[in-house]
Amino acid sequence: MTFTLKKTNTVTRLVPLVQYDEEGREIASRLNVRFKMMPREEWDKLTQAPDDDERLLFDVVVDGIADTVKNESGETMSPEAALAAIRADMSLTGQIVGFYTQFAFGAAAKNAQRSRAR
Prior knowledge:
The protein has five helices and three strands, in the order ββααβααα. It is an alpha+beta fold.
């Protein structure tokens, strides 16, 4: 079998998420999120644009949820419903976008780029 290299602009990563129950106890979990990758220049232009874009950064970088997500009653949600529910929770969207920026543009990404040049 031969391997065929296909160019893609998405990558799936396991994102650690923290939520809190009614009593304030921390609930830590992980979720596979599919991200749209973009160059740093495009990210900077998007985040520093003077116009008031209606999109959230979450909408720009998240391509989908690659895990099964259940609602509070334990029923499995459709991928679209899971994405909408996560998007509606600003704490989760902030954690996911924060993970993306660290993954795509943080120290680890810079070190990986430097090591390829050697």
